[in-house]
Each structure stands twice: as structure tokens, then as C-alpha cells.
Amino acid sequence: MVTALIKSLSILTKPIREAQWSNGQSTQTSLVLALQRNLSELRESMSAGEELEEARRLLEEVRRDSTWFCSDANDLTWCFVQECLLLLLCLARHLNRLVEAFNQIPAAPNPATPEAAPPLPPDVLSVAQQKTLGAVLQFVVTLGLCPYLAPGVGVALGLRSAFGAAVEGAVRHDVAPTGERRLLITANVLLEVSALSSLATPVFTRHLGDIMAALCQLAYRPQRPEGDSTKSNKGLTVEERKTCKEALHSLLGKVYQPIVIKELLVLQGGPKQGSSGSRGGCPGGGGKALSQAPPWLRRLCGQLLSDRLMQPQGVQAVVRAILEGTGAGGDSDWRKCDAVAKILAACPQQSLSAECYYSQVCPQVLELLHFKDKLTAQQFQRVATRAAFIMVQDRPEFAQRFLLFPLLSPLRRCAQGTGDDLSQDAVEEWELTRCIEDVYKICVVGNNPSEVLLKALADVYSTLFNLFCFTKQNVSHLRTSCQEILLWCLSHSERSASLLLLKRLCGLLGEVGGVRHGFQFSPGSEGGARLTVRELNSDEDDALYEKVSGEQWRVQCLVQLLEEMKDSDLPGEFFLLLLQDLTAVAAEQDEVEQEVNTSSMTLLELEQHLLGRAGGHGQRLALLQALAIMCEGLPHTQLLCKPTQVVGFIASMLQRACVSLERGTDSPVESQTLSMGIGLVATLLSGAAELTADDYSSMTALLPHLEQISQQHQEPVIQELASDLRATIATHGAYRPTTVPKTAGQHSTAHSLTQPAGHSSNSLPARPQVPSQSISHPKHTTDPSVTPKVKDFQTAGRIPNPGISEALRSKAFSECLLEACDLDVPTRAVALRSLTRSIRDGDEEALRNKEKLLTLFLENLEHEDSFVYLSAIQGLAVLADSFPEQILQRLLGEYQTGATVGPPKRERSLETRLKVGEVLMRACRAMGDLAPHYGRPLIGVFLSGTRDKDSSVRASSLSNLGELCQRLNFSLGPLAQELSMCLTALIKTDREAEVRRAAVHVIALVLRGLSDKTTQVLGDVLSELYRALKGVVRSDPDDVAVLHAQLALEELDDIMRRSIFPQQKLEKKIVVLP
User: Fold this and answer.
1) Name one GO biological process term (predicted).
2) Is there a cis peptide before residue 406, judged by omega within 30 degrees of 0?
3) Which of 684, 836, 872, 917 has CB atoms 3.0–4.6 Å from 956's, for a disulfide?
4) The whole model's pTM is what?
């Protein structure tokens, strides 16, 4: 039956032969003749043969049941369409019966394997049958649907092909039934046929837009009867129009929504005639422009599009309809994304209220950010970020409620509430992860700052910063996103708001907050973070330590955050703000507190008074902590990157000096502050850097402080210098006394050569001070981010002065030698490190006095403070690296005998001897490839040291021996036997566990150093060493020695495996024969 029906359809749609076009007839006449011939051939085929008998009976049955069939139609095209519609109904009803019978009869068990395909449903058509069905549907739509659409409704046939004009001319509109009735019949039959899924696919994939246009016209076109009101000219009944409306809405609800939206955009038509050449609402590109749709259709399509947009997943459907198939990148793609975003952000006129619209659309806009497909996610992200920005900018009240509040809800829940109710749900990992990713995409990737968005982020900034601090302590994929969001917010906020935010994060404005009491961030299972209940700590000391360390860690994270802002002035301005607060604290800290009569206070008032005092002390400590961490963690080129910031830094120092003068106190710290400030001013005014009028204008802030110093300071020299500096600034450099460049030269040269950290002085001309590495330190002055003018300021203090360089260097070296004997521990340690640096840099004066330095370093080894003797160890190691032949002999003598080598003879303590061993170990590490040359005398001393009566010396000798033998390579061969005997004897006989550990560790170091050369160098003793290691593993009571032996055996196992089974290399050797 199916074959017979398909054959009947193929007869109707038989193509016209080319011979029929060559008779000089028009296209319209040829079309009519071809349709008439196909109809006649169908009737003959059905009445003549038995092959189509069943199809003929079913056709007659369907014809009798169809009330719309008109047997006496005078329009040949409509007769052809009726026959096509009847055959389609026959095919649909027959396939429907087959499907019902197939579903009722249970399928027989398939004897084949489980992988076999299931039985094929009976409504599946072959490729040829589908092709025939598609041709029939095209004839039905072209002859029975499109000619009866009103002008502007749908795409006209003339715009589709040149053949469309001939089709329109062949259709007769002056005979019954009317065009609107024909349109209704065709639309109803197509909808009835499409009820079967196998037939719905070819109907809707190619003709959905025409069917929608027909239903829109039938259901919503205004009825305007003209002329007479006879029955032939009447329109559709109310019931028929209602049925068409229901069919239209049912169709729009069943079909894939992006396709529906695309077709509705086409139905809206093109732009007005004034905008010729535009595509209007058509989402495609290229082709002819669409005609303008009538007003009723434009309003209807707008209403239907609004309904599609506001339904669930409507935003996604709209975006897919416009962007599907556009690809990624390109100017057109960006423009389409921007156009879609504007559509989503604008409330349509058909919406009941703006609040209702945004409450439904905003959550769907956020959902666009959560797609995983790369191309789809990129396009949807563009639309979402742009739409969010437009909403925030144009409708901030609705964007705040329906967009930003749900976006930041997980972060708000982290900060709101208390941990007393443990049944309260915590924030899950996926919520925080999605929140951070969405905020990153909207803020950082979208990069459209607005006041509303920055204000919303400021409310959760503390929570976000706490999360960032947590990610810095753990491995988390949220770290980079949190950091970028924080930096974006700081960079785009107003400067005053950013500084206030930074002060709050440092704890200078009270409690930092960010996480509700009783909760904390914990690592998530997927590398994120989640909010969980904090375990209560019953120990008050542990709780206090946890609180203090947490505050310090937050400040460190904040400084690391500021370190990333290399091109911003915010770190410098925040540093100057803290210095101003420090000046205020310095002015208050020494004031005598007024006596408060606590006897008349109530307990509540007394508690508030004590809490206020404690809070003030806590804020002072937080301020000092923030300043200390900033000075330690940020380079001076970032803290003082502008001339105005340098001047502000000087003003803060001079202001603190003025405060001390007003109080009448004189301490070393205050004197050093004054020295630094005046020295910096003198350096800037010395003429080393060219100052502009703006620079002098910024320096006018120093005039009141210099005037106060010139009037109130006790020393006349400083008074005179302050007065001269004030005069130079006031005259913009026109008047420059000789004291200014003189002080600047002494200041810069003395600091660059001799200034140790922590040293203070009371006399400005003798030892002027500068801030620690803020102006003249050469290490940081090559930063390319510093402007040339600021570089001039920063290098002005170290411009060479040819007249005093050599004498000052000699003086600096002698002063360092004196300070290396100072009783003050910091002064001595810094002097030792300065001397070490001079040796490393090849200073001629230091190299000439190497014997003095050797004696000085050896004497300082006996100092009890680790800061001093570690500096001496470092100096001896550098000295041994510079003069190995001379220094190593002296050190070996000291280490071997335990007494001084030169006069006077005296015994060294055990601790000093071990410190010399540390020096020798560092010297061995620094030898590198020269170890075979200089290492032979060291091996003898270390081997003899293994027989010392003190176990610590034996362990030290073995440690040094391992470091040296690790670098000897093939030079170790002649000594292999002696080394093996020494190590195996110590492993078997020594009673001290630390000595056995060191001996086993020497074997591991030797094996690691020789690597693949082990079998060549230690071939004779390798079995002895192996047996010694196995003996340690089996019988040694010390667990650490056993662990070292296992590691050595693993090293040996790797070496032997590589030796026996060498790595296969896919290489080809080409040998050129002579």
C-alpha cells in the first residue's frame, strides 16, 4: 500500500520534459499543461491496472470523508493541489494504522546477538520515497499555500525563484473556493499529516515558515469585508479562527524554539522603505531584502517573540536562533552579539511589567555563562556580559535585584548570619566556584566598569579577599580568578574608595569580616573551596595565635595583591596614607593620658573604656604591621614611582621629626628620621636631576616643616641646612647655597659605600642617612616601568664624584672593619655582610686586606649570636672561593688540629671547629669542576677527621667528605679502596647513630654524583658497599640510618638497571667510509 501511494505521488510530480518547453509556449502555459497531463495519467493508472487498486479505494474513502473537497473546481492548479492533499492524507492514515498495529503486537524475541538492531517501524520511508514526498510537499506549498498569502505575509514566491512568478500567474483567484478557504484547507491538511512523526520531519524542516505564515493570516488578519456580503466573499468563522489560533500556538510549542524564533523574525519582514538594502529582522545573511510586513503581523510577531523570550530557556533559544552558524570571531559576530544583548536588555512593549520581564530574563542571562562547549560558551559569554552591562547601566534598580544579587548570593551567604545554628546550610563548593567564574567573566572579561557593579562588589569584597587568602594557602584553581577580580575592582574604583577598602582589609578600621562567625573556608573535593563550620578551639593561647597569624597572613596577601599593580599609583598612595596615620600615632603615643576616675564608673562604662583603649592599641599594631610588610614585600620603585610620591614620603618623615621637636624628645630613631628626610631633600635639590616647575610646586608642602626645624632644632648646623633648603625650594632653585650640594654628596656617597642597616647617628654632616633602598640603591633602579624623571630622582644620590671616590672608599672599608668589632650585634653582622659583599664584588681594598678579613671572620665564628657567626661563615666561604689555595690551607689546619694556626696558639671550642667544617662544606659546593684540583688535601683531612674522638666531628667530616666526593668524578678512582674501607668500618663499628647515618649518606651522595660512571669508578669496591648497605637495612637499630641505606640502595638499583638495560634511542648513525 505504501509503495502504491508513493507511486501515485510520483506520477503527480513527474517532471516536465525539456521537449515540452521548446514549442514556444510560455512557462505558465507549460506548467498548466504539465499539471493536467499528470492528473490525467494518475486517473488512467488507477482505473487501468490492479497495482494501484488498493490505493484507489483508499483514495475514494478519504475523498468521501473530506468535506472540503470540491469536485467542480475550475482552477486546474487547485485540482492538482486537492489530489496531492488527498494522497497525503491517504499515506498518513495508512502509516498511522501500521504504527498502531506495530505497537500493539509485541515484538518477537530476536535470536541474534544483543548488538543487533531493533525491528524497523513500518512508517520509515526510504530515501527515494522521502525524495518523492518532499517534491509533493513543495508542490502543495507552492500552489496551495503561498499564492493565497496576503502581501507582506511570509516570503513571496517571486523572491524565492524566477519560476515563482509563473506559479502565481497560473493560479486563478476568481473561482470557488476563495483564496482564504483554500489556505485554510491546505494548512489543516498539512497539520494533520504532520501529526505522524515520520511525516512531520519533511513538513517542518522545509515549510515551517510558510505554515506559520498561513496560520497567522488565518487567525489574526483583521476581517475587512468590501463590497457585497455574499457567502462567497465572507471570511472565516469565529470558530475556524479560534481553531487556527490554537493550532498556531500548539505548533510554536512543539517545534525547536530557535527555529521558531528564526521564522518569526523572517515573518516580521524587512525594514521600512527608507532603509533599503537592509535585511531587517532576517537572521540570515545575503540574498534579497524582505518586503515590509503589515502592521498587524509585526505586532503579532513581536508578541510571539516576547512570549518565546520569557518562557523557560527562552533567552537561550533567542541567542541560538540568531547566532547559530555564525562561527566565532569577526566583526559581524561581535555586532550580532551586541544586537542580541540589546534585545535582551530592553523590556518589550508587550510585557506586562518591567519587573516581571527582568525577573524572568536576568536568571536566564546568568545561565548563558555556564556552557562548556568552547564555541558556544564564547558567543554566549559575549551576549551575557554585554547584556548585563546594558541592564546595569540602563535599569540599575532591576539589575541590582534580579542580576547582581543572585550573582553574588554565595559570597553574601558566606558573610551573613552566625555559626550558632549549625543546621544552617553552608555554601557548597560548586556554588562558590560558579559564583567566582561568573563574576570573573562579567567583570574582568567583559571589562565594563560601572558604579552600580563596583558598589555591589564592594559589599562582598571582604569575603572575596578572605577567599583569596585561603587560596594562597592551598592549591586551588580559584586563586587566579579571585586575584584578577580584586585587582579589577581596585583599579576601576574611585581612588578614595580603593584606599578606604585597603585600610579596612588591613584591619585599620576595625574587624575585617568577610566570613560569618563560626565558619571558615575549607578545601573542596574538586580544587575549589566551600564554607564549613569551624571547629571550636578550647585553648585560649592557640586561639589567640591563630587569630594573630591570620591577621598577619591577610596583610601579606594584600601586599602580594598590591605587588601585581605595577602600573598603578595605588600602592604608593596607600603607603603614604599609612605614613600619615603613623605620624598621627607618633603624636599621640607619648601624650600623658588624663587620669580617669574609674571609681565612679559603672561596670559597663568601665568595660567600654578598657575596650576602647585596647582597640586603639590594636589599630596601632595593625598599622605598624602593615607598614613593615609593605616595606619588606614591595620594591621602592613601586612604592614611590612618582616625584609627588617621593615628596610625600619626605613630608611624612619631616612631619614626624617636627612632632618630636614639639614634644621636646630626642631619640636615635627620631634623629635618623630627620637625617633621612633632610638628606633626601638635599639630594633632590643638588642639581643631579632636572626639576620642573610642577616638581617645585609639589615640594612647597615641605616649607612649613623645614621652617619649624630651622627654628626649633637644637643644632645650629641642622637649622642652617633646613633654612637653606627652604630658601632653595621657595626660589625654585634660583638661590642654592653651597651647603645643599655638599650635604647631598656626603649623603649619597656615604650611603652607597658604607651605610649598614640599623645604624643611626646624631650628626647630620658626619653620617647623613637615607631611607632603606628608597633613593640610591642600585639594585632596583633599572626597572623599565619607572619614568625617566623618577629614575633621575632615584639615581641622583649615586652620581659619581671623581674628587672624593677613592678616599671615601678607603674610609668606608676601614669603618666597616671597625664596625665588625662593634658590641652592637646588628651593626657587627651588617658590617660582616658588607665586607663579604666587597670581596664578592672584587673590591681592591678588600682583596688587599684578605689576611685581616680572614682573621676577622675566624674571630667572629666564636660569637654566640647566630646572626653574627652565620655572616662570618658566609664571608669565609666567599674568601675561600676567591683564594682557594691560601685560605683552604688555613681552614684545614684550624679544622684538623682544633687550634689556631697563627700566633698566639690557643684551642678552639668544639662549636667553632664545627663551624669551620660548615665553611669547608660550602667551599666544596662552590668548587664545581675545580674540585679534583683542590680537593685532594681536603680528602686527607676529612678522612683523618673520621677517627676523631668526638662523634660530632666525625659526623661533620663525613658530611664534608660526601659533598666533596660527589664532585670528584673519575678523580675518585685511586681513593675508592681507602674510602670504601673507611665507610664500611664506620658503618659496622661506630656506636654513635649519627656517625653511621653520615657514613651511609656519604655512599648515597657518591652514587648520586657518579651516576652512570659508578661502575667504572667504583667497580672494585661496589660489592663491598652493597653488602654494607644491606647489612644496615637488615640489622641496624637506627631507623634513620636504615632509611638512608634504602635510599642508597634505590640509587644503586637505578644505576645498575640503566647499565644493564640501556635506554633504546631511535637514532641512525651515518658513517662516511674513507
Assistant:
1) protein secretion
2) no
3) 917
4) 0.61
